[in-house]
Each structure stands twice: as structure tokens, then as C-alpha cells.
């Protein structure tokens, strides 16, 4: 039998000081279970137009533990849905994997009590591009790294060399834009 702090004090007082507690019964109850609101959220994500290939979609927590997993064949459907189970509210990431390349399509707040999800951060097309399931176009500059003109994921000397080569071409009479020049290489 477990005794709470009050029960221990009463027993100690009666033993040490001879205080009688008579017929009084003291019950101390300990609440050891906390009930969490659990449920299932049906999460849906659009598949970008022009995406292709077979890939995996994982919904994972911040430790990387997968809560739900589904295979996607991009180009077949315009939308993919997956049921995610959990309790209370949690921020979970949607991770795409293809040929050992992974990218986070977004992080979402899942409210399992109300069976809803909402966007925290999202770049679905960018994730499809990172894993090679969607071709990057020259017009995608809004999501590209500023100064990364060769689209290799970093701004470095290679980008500077491309700009110098383009400048030399312009000096020799080339009239196209930098994007056109990069597309002709």
C-alpha cells in the first residue's frame, strides 16, 4: 500500500507522540495517468505538376521517428493523402526520399484532438527538386540561393567564373541574358 505525505505524517505522529487518530481514515489518491486527446489526421499534400518518379513520403517527429509512410508515384496523381495517428498537438515534418536523397517538404502542426493540420513551413516543389523528382527551371529564381547562378546549391568561385565568362561574351558582342547564356552551356 502506498502512503502519501499526509499518511506518513499521521502515522509518524501516532507512533512518536502517542497521538490517536481514532477511527479517522485518511486516503490519499495519486493520479498517475494523464489522458491525452488522441486521434487521426488525414494529411493531404499536392504533387507538383511535372513531378515524376517513385519516392517515399514519411511523416516524422523531431527525433526522426516515422509516424506514417507512403510510397508516391509522382505524375500519376495530383494529390497524395496519408493518415497520421497521434495525441494532443505536435509539430511533424513531411520528408520525401528518392534514391537516397531526402528533403523536407514542410513542417506542420497536427492537432489530433480536432483532426486537423496547419502549415508551419512548406516548400513542396523545392523538396521535389532537391530529390530529383522535379526539374528545376531557370525561372525559379525566387526559391534559389541568391548568386548561385549555376544552381549547384552554393555561392562560390564557380559562380564568379561563370559571370566573368558571361562578361567576356558580352564584351565580344553577345546580346543574350545571363539566364540564356547559362542555358546554352
The unreliable regions are: 1-34, 140-144
Main sheet properties = 5 strands, antiparallel
Number of domains: 3
Widest sheet, order of strands? 3-2-5-6-7
Please tell me the CATH architecture of the largest domain by its name: Sandwich
Rg computed from alpha carbons, rounded to a whole number of angstroms: 30 Å
Element order: H for helix, E for strand: HEEEEEEEHHH
Features:
disordered N terminus, elongated, 185 residues, 4 helices, two-stranded antiparallel ribbon, alpha+beta, Immunoglobulin-like, 3 domains
In words, what does this structure look like?
- The relative contact order is 0.12.
- The protein has 3 domains: 1-33, no CATH class; 38-130, Immunoglobulin-like (Sandwich), CATH 2.60.40; 141-183, no CATH class.
- The model is unreliable at 1-34 and 140-144 (pLDDT under 50).
- Helices cover 22% and strands 34% of the residues.
- It starts with a helix and ends with a helix.
- It has 4 helices and 7 strands.
- The strands form 2 sheets. Strands 3-2-5-6-7 form a 5-stranded antiparallel β-sheet. A two-stranded antiparallel ribbon has the order 1-4.
- The protein has helices spanning 5-17, 124-130, 157-171, 178-183, and strands at residues 38-46, 53-60, 66-74, 79-87, 89-98, 101-111, 116-122.
- The chain is elongated, with a radius of gyration of 30 Å.
- With 185 residues, the protein is of the alpha+beta class.
